[in-house]
Model the fold of this input.
Amino acid sequence: MAVSLLISFISCAVITLKFNFALFPRKYFILNIWGAWCFGAWLCEYLLTNSTSLIKNKTWWLAGVGLLIIFQILKQCSWASIICYNISIVLWGWVIVPIIYLEEFLEEKNYKSRSKIVGLIIKVMATIGLSSYSLYMLHEPLMYLRNAVLKDVSSEKIRLLVGVVWVFVTFLLAWASYQLFEKPFLSYRTSRK
Done:
């Protein structure tokens, strides 16, 4: 983990110093975001294999606050855009962990109470979870498309409306991608075993 973060930091620094700005190919250069990917893999592995809850871990939360402070400081520096992008990816870990524990809590509560509202929340979360790979693959290009659509729109109300609708469209497209591509491929792969 430390090696991948160091390599990403060095790669971001070289691109920032050499080119002084982040075009699309430079921003997404694999070594730049390798550390963030490895952090995500580490987080998944930790959540699957450790009984120790990150929710109750003070070091976890202090690291999140520290990273958020570093992000806010670097965000003011024009030269740090690539580094800020990577930090923003890693910061999602502190959003995702409570959601995972919330889902576990709701499943346990639903098992005991059979509440229809809790059941619906779990169903929505499970649907998002099933289509998470498609969501991961589609959200960046769809954000760039949304930004291109809104480039010349100055009305804040229209921008807000398009932004909210776009979130739902992104989730719907991710679900459609799961149904049309992932699910048939997974079924085919299972039948071949």
